[in-house]
């Protein structure tokens, strides 16, 4: 008797088929859903610069080079041209105000001075003679009046005597009338002379004033001529140190030519070039700091030269309190020009990554330390050492700040 044989449900072939289908399905799921699609690059960790993100004090500043100059300088120029005849001092000498520096010789100028001096002195003498004549005329007029007063007195007495004699019929009518006419004529002459004296006096005052003014102007012109001649002697305008002075006997110096300068001994300043990008952020009173000889010195901007040359502009900085005693004119000193006060901020160290990313993203190291991935960030201010992080990073995280040139913009860096 035959017995039916039951068909097995899980044959080896069936199991293998199911496993194959499942494996294929998993492969598809992994390929389309579970696989890491990030582009990656294998790099050596020891060739990277990895730094921590920190929360620390941050201050925005830029380094600039300042050249030492005297705080105040007086330039010495040749007022009159000439040939160098005598040199009294050398460059670097400490001079008092009025000390002679050099003497120029200008023969033509000296001849013109003597000719003009002679003409001016002649004119002054003529004006003084005119003034004397006016004074003499005043005395002549006064003498004339005195003479007329004397004549009137005699004519009056003569007329009175003849009037008495005429009344007594002792003289003729003609003698009486002659005496009367003489007396009246003399009185009229006196009146006219008095009026002329008043007129001469008024005119004389005006003329004397004009003459005095003319003489004063001529004496001033004479003094000016003497001062111009004196300008051939170059003298120190103030107490200080003579610098930039280099002349030789026999050299010809033109009028207005620069001869040297007096550096006042009242301190120093720094003159610095600043990139034109910062011209809108620089202002008078802005502070800076310099480390010289192990000591910090504070400075402030006193003057801004807004002319831009070769992509930069200049500023003068004064020391706030004290200045280094051993600095010298012409010395170059590096200082930090401050744009902000120190404040708490998230910061990362500066590095070559910025040239590739522009500060828009950075590679952040995974906590496992096995790889690093890209992350968008936003940077703010910067100084010589650090960037300020506005968003995208937290203190304690680690980032790669070395150059990204060889990474080819990969999404993931896997460390070897």
Description:
This protein has 416 residues and is of the alpha+beta class. 35% of the residues lie in helices and 33% in strands. It contains four helices and 24 strands. The strands form five sheets. Strands 1-24-20-19-23-2 form a six-stranded mixed β-sheet, with no helix packed on it. The protein has a six-stranded antiparallel beta barrel with strand order 4-13-16-15-14-17. A hairpin with a 5-residue loop joins strand 19 and strand 20. The protein is rod-shaped. It starts with 11 loop residues before the first helix and ends with a strand.
Explain briefly what this protein structure is:
The protein has 416 residues and is α+β, with helices and mostly antiparallel strands. Helix content is 35%, strand content 33%. A hairpin with a 3-residue loop joins strand 21 and strand 22 (386-391).
Q: What is the total domain count?
A: 4
Individual helix count:
4
- Structural class category: alpha+beta
- Could you give a short account of the major beta sheet? 6 strands, mixed
Order of helical and strand elements: HEEEEEEEEHHEEEEEEEEEEHEEEEEE
User: Proportion of β residues?
Assistant: 25-35%
Radius of gyration: 53 Å
Kindly state the number of beta strands. 24
Report the principal-axis shape. rod-shaped
- The helix content, as a percent range, equals 25-40%
Mean pLDDT, all residues: 85
Low-confidence stretches: none
Largest beta sheet: what is the strand line-up? 1-24-20-19-23-2
Give the distance, in angstroms, between the N- and C-terminal Cα atoms: 73 Å
